[in-house]
Amino acid sequence: MNETGRISVGIVGASGYGGVQLVRLLMEHPGVEIVYLGGDSSAGKPFSDLYPHLAHAVNLQIEPVDVEAIAKRCQVVFLSLPNGLAYQLAPTLLEKGCKVLDLSADYRFSNLETYKSWYGGSRCDKEVAATAVYGLPELYRERIKQAQLVGCPGCYPTASLLALSPLLKQGLIVPETAIIDAKSGTSGGGRQAKTHLLLAEADNSVAAYNVARHRHTPEIEAICSELAGHDVFVQFTPHLMPMVRGILSTVYATLRDPGLVREDLITIYSAFYRNAPWVKILPPGVYPQTKWACGTNLCYIGVEVDPRTARVIVMSAIDNLIKGQAGQAIQCLNLMMGWDETLGLPAISFYP
Amino acid sequence: MNETGRISVGIVGASGYGGVQLVRLLMEHPGVEIVYLGGDSSAGKPFSDLYPHLAHAVNLQIEPVDVEAIAKRCQVVFLSLPNGLAYQLAPTLLEKGCKVLDLSADYRFSNLETYKSWYGGSRCDKEVAATAVYGLPELYRERIKQAQLVGCPGCYPTASLLALSPLLKQGLIVPETAIIDAKSGTSGGGRQAKTHLLLAEADNSVAAYNVARHRHTPEIEAICSELAGHDVFVQFTPHLMPMVRGILSTVYATLRDPGLVREDLITIYSAFYRNAPWVKILPPGVYPQTKWACGTNLCYIGVEVDPRTARVIVMSAIDNLIKGQAGQAIQCLNLMMGWDETLGLPAISFYP
Amino acid sequence: MNETGRISVGIVGASGYGGVQLVRLLMEHPGVEIVYLGGDSSAGKPFSDLYPHLAHAVNLQIEPVDVEAIAKRCQVVFLSLPNGLAYQLAPTLLEKGCKVLDLSADYRFSNLETYKSWYGGSRCDKEVAATAVYGLPELYRERIKQAQLVGCPGCYPTASLLALSPLLKQGLIVPETAIIDAKSGTSGGGRQAKTHLLLAEADNSVAAYNVARHRHTPEIEAICSELAGHDVFVQFTPHLMPMVRGILSTVYATLRDPGLVREDLITIYSAFYRNAPWVKILPPGVYPQTKWACGTNLCYIGVEVDPRTARVIVMSAIDNLIKGQAGQAIQCLNLMMGWDETLGLPAISFYP
Amino acid sequence: MNETGRISVGIVGASGYGGVQLVRLLMEHPGVEIVYLGGDSSAGKPFSDLYPHLAHAVNLQIEPVDVEAIAKRCQVVFLSLPNGLAYQLAPTLLEKGCKVLDLSADYRFSNLETYKSWYGGSRCDKEVAATAVYGLPELYRERIKQAQLVGCPGCYPTASLLALSPLLKQGLIVPETAIIDAKSGTSGGGRQAKTHLLLAEADNSVAAYNVARHRHTPEIEAICSELAGHDVFVQFTPHLMPMVRGILSTVYATLRDPGLVREDLITIYSAFYRNAPWVKILPPGVYPQTKWACGTNLCYIGVEVDPRTARVIVMSAIDNLIKGQAGQAIQCLNLMMGWDETLGLPAISFYP
Question: Fold for domain C7-152+325-336?
Fold first, then answer.
């Protein structure tokens, strides 16, 4: 703890959208103080050169990434880097006693073979990786509380797993029938300039991408398999939406018991998430809009049953950069520190 | 034929988006001349009061809807009205010898009981309705050529059926597994002012609506059942997108033969649509963007197979107001008149 | 003060965008408790029927507008109604001892003749109106502290006056040369369904409206005239932008002293707003983006000088629904209550 | 002329937005045939790799830029390249007998010193540059007809000059009072990936850029000075809009004769543009929306007078990529070839 009675926190990879979300949220978090912002290409620049609107609130410079120095100054480190970098930094940070929250894919897989087959690279941090907990508090709250290393879920898996978990856990669906049709704003693609994410290209258009081969698939499947008790393949199709933030996952699955009605399922979902302050189950006939969740750490879930087809349709909406990324990491930090799970996180969106 | 050697055409319901599309497209169609624009609340106004940008091109007034007068002046009549009105006008127009193209749901159902259970109303035009042909040229080209009355498909059914038809017709999928996750721009909701279609509400947000009960479901199912040879229920979920025009249908289904690969299906689709000038099958790994189709009568189709799940994923993109509405009606007119199917219809979008 | 030690607050006109902003902001304000939400057409409905995403946070019903009952329950009343209604409610509320903050145009004019010539109606509340203070804290902080009735500025005047005031107050420009080219998101038009505010109409398009006759003109001119010390006409042109929130005012004026450079003016602006926590003057060469201000009560101001033309160009960006409406009203409340001007108001936007 | 009786046309720089517009428009132009597409980084690729939606319509490869080969195959060459490249190609092409239309800034300036001071570079093509005609047909129709080399105007100058020209030419305004507040879609920034043009950055935001120093300023001033008969500085401020296409120029100027009313000016504008088929003067009280012009070569102009300030406000709307770029170049080509000025160019937008 530092002089202010707050935990000292560092962010490696502060220049991207994940980084700026963390900065923004942690600025208003009563339990922490940001003492370090790290980056590579932007090292040496004031943070406000990258985000001028924050000049009045953030008076920090981007510093080079020096693990020893970071460990000395920070009790907690958020790694917000491209895939494949965190596992080169985390082991040392952990050894020096830091708590580490990684926002990349590096520590999301208990099976490193799965990681390597989808992301490539060689991993010699097997033992460290084995200590990592998957940072989805609604499923792994107790483990996160004990963790020193948390691998925070991707944005798509968060939305999708919150929609699917009660069904799988309770054995209500035929797992193999699960289809996830996900829609994301373009900020999920990051701040790197890419042609297909230009406003001129992406506005007023909708398309699927990485059909049947998006890297979030194995992450979703690993957790689904654990919940189902056997290996499950799910169909996952991401789509790019002409909007900045937000993910909607529309999930389809065949009910084992075709007699279940919508209200039954809403009761089951409400019970499943009774102690989950960031999940809101909507009343019958109300379906979530991504905008409702934007600027908050909430996940809104709507449930429908089609008696004609014996399918359940679950829709979940989150802010991809908050509950889908930085906010969830902070929710995990709250648990790791023994704080209230909601501490310092926004719960009401600005609407419209 | 009028003095110009062109067919005289009238549009009833010219003030809405369907109407203005028809006007815009027919203005550039070499075979027709618009001689009548009809409307109710806007009767008496110059058309350019409603659409000032067309003042230089359209010098017509909206006139009251008088069936006798319309029939006298028009060889062909487009009905672009809310559901439930066309069937009060069409019988007389047909009797007087007009060809009629209805853009509402009134003449899309061979089974009027289905119509009444989804749309209400009482129908005493059973015999007339029995002569109506479903205006999807890619499936019913020959019948349309002979028709005097065409019930033009809805926007969602057009995109969805063009994606599903080859699979059902060839018996490649288990029909009951078909799931259609459709995404539409807000212009599909029409020009009537509705709160949820305000830019302030609909922009930067995505949500499903009418889940498991959208009125386009029975229309899709009727054709699917015909193609499959037995009654089929399909799962259809429409979503509102933060964009003006365009529909993307993402269709999922389980393959009967899990050995089929993507290239097989692309070959099958290409063959199925060999003589369909408005359907373009994309090469392997290319998925359609709605923007590609905007401002054209095209339907772009991309096909993917997921060997892990034995599912086919088909994505189809159209302009909801052209191939999904006015353009398709004109494509039908071309067939009814014995003209080339592509006559007067735009085939290249403006991009970006 | 109520049992919680908080001030009891009511909102009349809670169903619109002004209302929902007030609700959202006041929910997180530590000094107040919302005890009453009033509305006309929506009376009797739970507030969450109108805004389902707030169901978890707001458990209040819309009640009919009964002035006596409101005065009994509320120490402070926000009036968020169409123009012409507040002056029928405010006198009684004031008489009963309430503090009143009006978000409409009714109490923005010290000269009621100006009000009547632009807004119509007859006013018999002349004495009450004479006590109203114009709720722009950056100019009238001390008067607002003493006020019982505040007429909160319009969104355009807020952005425009914050940009112009230092120039006029210091006599730096020729007042008659002032031109305000303002750009607003569509939420400024309210939640009432209007055709031209539909996403299908307003998206991907830009246009001016009410050129040379927008009702915010006299409001801007009244304050400008006061600052200049003589009557001033300004050119004010509002434009509708294809976006939800935000106003950018680009202000042009001819400098009296063509030798002034950008840095001089930035110094002058910084001094002028030294004690204004909600105004941020940007460094040389940085121009405000509306998105920076969205979700906050901030006004960002950028200043440029064109030595070739001897003009100053000032750009100011605000969130039209916060600093341009509800946030500013709460800023005024803070002053009226003797609280810190920043209490309970958001200062950091979510970006992107 | 080639075998088809059409003029053979080449496009150098076909991969960008200017290039794809030219391709799209020239595909439907009855007088030309595209025989060559040239590019640098994309040489060797099929054009449809860059724009897959055009695969069915364009069967051409991008070829390396070899001036000799181009001149041999093409009668007309469009240069759609970054500034500073055209003047290295044009002299040879002209010498070999090609007609050349340059879409960059290279040949827009009769005074090369102005060019060099704003764009840099050294120019040794003074004699060639002296033969270039500024490609704004509404002002220089006759000269364009005779030209072999046309320097096509920028998008901002086109919108701005069409709005200002009648006022300057007729001496109706004090030229020094002219202020141009211009709003552009992001496609004006090209297809190169740049962070500030990402949808995540540019959507739902508005900002000015290059205030008092945008490179289109000298181009506007050169023509204004010619029209006014003496050197004129104009205030020009570009703004980035959250939309794909379109420019709106809002132009302010002080009338010499304050007695002029709106209707007078509309009459003057209508007369000025009597023979300009691509300019449409709107009736009193109607202001142009950019969307009206999108997908067309039209410029819509609305005129307002504010008698209180003695200013005229003129609003002009164009599609920045058509009338502001590729369409205008083709309009020039039509004149150079002795064809009708409207040949092959779209005149009706798709709305909404």
Answer: Rossmann fold (3.40.50)
